[in-house]
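Hi,

I'm pasting everything inline rather than attaching a file, because the server keeps stripping attachments. The sequence lines come first, and each chain or strand is labelled.
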Amino acid sequence: MNKTEMFLKKALSEATPKEGPRKQEQAALKIRSLPINDERINYPLMIIRILRFVSWKIWLVQGMCFIFLAGILIGISNQKTGPGGLMDPRLICIFCGSLPFISIPFIYRSAKYKMSEVEMGTFFSYSRQILARLIVIAFGNVCMIIGSTVICLTRLYADIMTTIAFGMIPFLFINTIILLILSHVPRHASMWLYGLTYLVLITISAAASDLQKMVENYETAPYVIVLCIVLCLIITLQLKGIIREGSIVSGINNKECY
Amino acid sequence: MELTIKNVTKTYADKTAVNNVSLTITPGVFGLLGANGAGKTTLMRIIADIIKPSSGEVLYNGIPIETLDSEYRNIFGHLPQEFGFYPEFRVTDYLEYIAAIKGLTKKDTKQRIEELLVQMSLEEVRNKKIKKLSGGTRRRVGIAQALLNNPEVLILDEPTAGLDPGERIKFRSLLSEFSKKRIVLISTHIVSDIEYIASRNAIMKEGEIIQTGTTDELIGSIDGKVWECVVDNYDLPWLEKKVQIVNLRNEASGSTTVRYLGNCPVAEGSVSVSPRLEDLYMWLFGSREG
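And the predicted assembly:
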């Protein structure tokens, strides 16, 4: 038995139901104030340790899908305007908005392979494990959006504001929707919502050409930037909520939020 | 060390899976016996803090497990009934992955995995993909992952499903040794899993605990209600209609030795025999109850 386990044992043995809720609460606080276990690794180290099990498959799929979608985007642009291509905001919007959808199956992998019950009974909470997976996905997503920006600027000759408005904003917007669904909707019902979200993306993309004139007018630039920042903040708050409230729908029968 | 389940109820939209269950579990093997659908898995999930009860609470040494949170998860191991794995995982990958999310250091991980591979006879399959293993071997991998963090509370839901008789015996010895200073909670409908190793048992039926006690105390309740007789094979259908048969053994002379349950003997030549836990199970869960 290690040092922390001894501490834990001693602290736990001090509290019994007869001693009243105040004493219990004190004991619980005492336990919480202890370094959880000097023999346990911390969260960042856990992420590093599980990287080799969860990351390569996610990044491989993200990379392959990105190359495929980028090929289509460049191909269609070239077809329309000749080699070198020219940007079509509708295509950029669909392309960048589609990127977050690639990783959805990986979020639900543990429920699909019935791993969630084992994963829930471990030192690091299930929400933190999902968050670790989201961090891996986010890394891939950031690489993809950087790649998309480079393609838009160098291959499609889009200006920076158009790239942000029709690339970055749909990308961030879809990410917020995905996190919202992940936090509030059970797995069996969520697939319909993801489908619906994609339909919304296509509809918005169709209107992109009309919006382009507005964006080209640099007076609207601050609004575009502010919208980007707001979406980034929403994503950060959503991720914080996942850790703080454990708001991940697990897929375990009748487990509302965890 | 004490695990207390206090008036726990779990209600789903259409049924009550666990109904006002109260139990106190101390170190040793605690057997939770019940037919399929009795509510065992739901109760195990509540104890493992995987699902929340509709009412009531689970306390570890007097402190609600919700308050303890990761401290509680740190000291328990759990083998669920439906044991899953990622298809690309090899045995060691799986154990290393679970060790990481259990927060074990690299050094501890290596040491514990080596120990458990030996203990669970998994050395030969350590580099094989789990999806290619037999059901019994997969179960052993599941048991190994539950033991990785050397838990104080071990929760095993149907742990021996798929194990062959030899593996079952080995598993029982392992648990017997392991449970000396720890709480081991086994939920099963296989009576022999717990008959000889459980220090206490609870029998669950339709979401409620209907009996608790040591194996001897429990089987004492059907003392004088278990009978054995030898009947001609022609009389067997008649006897089957009259009583709850626990066991049949064909004899060479065209007759059958029958072990049956009843408040009084119904066949000629019946003798009262010592009850076993299996008899109690049949008494409680057989098609002709009581």
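Confidence is low (pLDDT under 50) at residues 15-19, 30-37, 249-258 of chain A.

If the labels don't parse on your end, tell me and I'll reformat.
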